[in-house]
Write a structure and sequence with these properties.
The protein contains 8 helices and 11 strands. The protein is of the alpha/beta class. A hairpin with a 2-residue loop joins strand 8 and strand 9. The longest helix has 18 residues.
């Protein structure tokens, strides 16, 4: 356990105390960040409406990391692992080798089971969750040490806590602490309105997150256009503008030098 903890600490600090800058491998996206990557150990909220490219962004980023030999975990609350893998293959990604070698694990979980467990524990323990969250289904499999994690989506998880917003808040805060302890890069997908006024349903997630990526799919004149924005990213300078995004036959591609709204 000590060896594992030291490994996680090295991963957070990088070389000589500096953070490791992790590339997504998505064409054009890493150019939006000064060091060409996201600080390792960051919790990133991936926010946007339906069809904006959030899931593809996370799948593509984890696939690129797995191809480099890093262990990656994709947690899904809605889509089946088989459907997500089929979706990845449609882009021509050769996922069989990384899946068969356990470098990319796609794991489905029941958000309602998590919610029931949390509420039962809170009822017994006067509103407090145990530090190790014993008794709650583990989102990270026992003995695994993922380099990168994605959760799709925290909106589905929040919906499972029907009428219990305080229970959800307590759980999500503990979940963020758990992810921080792993030292893994974590992406948490959340659904918003087409033009969001806030970037998560409760507002708690965007406050806790180290970074917020916002994906758009809006109309420019009579044409729908996809775009992405880095709203915040602790520990890294980044481009402060909304840039075009395309879903191609190979996956996502970002165009940092172009504008979404060109002047007439």
């Amino acid at each position: 356990m000590k060896k594992l903890a030291k490994g996680r600490e090295r991963r957070k600090k990088g070389i000589k105390g500096r953070p490791e800058w992790v590339k997504t491998g998505i064409p054009g996206f890493d150019d939006l960040i000064e060091h060409g990557g996201i600080p390792q150990g960051s919790n990133i909220l991936v926010s946007g409406g339906p069809g904006t490219g959030k899931t593809i962004f996370c799948l593509q980023t984890l696939y690129n990391a797995a191809r480099k030999g890093h262990k990656c975990l994709y947690i899904t609350f809605e889509e089946s692992p088989e459907k997500l893998k089929k979706h990845m293959r449609q882009f021509g990604w050769k996922i069989d080798s990384v899946v068969n070698n356990d470098l990319l694990i796609v794991r489905r979980m029941d958000p309602f089971r998590i919610a029931r467990s949390v509420e039962a524990l809170l009822a017994k323990a006067a509103g407090q969750l145990p530090m190790g969250m014993e008794g709650i289904p583990k989102v990270i499999p026992e003995g695994s040490d993922p380099y990168m994690i994605a959760m799709d989506s925290v909106s589905a998880l929040e919906s499972a806590f029907t009428g219990k917003p305080e229970s959800y808040r307590i759980y999500i805060e503990q979940l963020f602490r758990l992810f921080e302890k792993t030292g893994a890069m974590t992406f948490l997908i959340t659904e918003t309105e087409e033009v969001p006024k806030r970037y998560s349903r409760t507002g708690v997630e965007e406050f806790l997150a180290d970074g917020v990526l916002v994906f758009y799919y809006g109309k420019v004149r009579d044409i729908r256009t996809r775009a992405v924005e880095i709203l915040k990213l602790r520990g890294a300078k980044h481009v402060n503008k909304i840039v075009p995004l395309n879903i191609t036959e190979k996956g996502l591609e970002v165009f940092p030098g172009e504008r979404v709204f060109e002047a007439e």
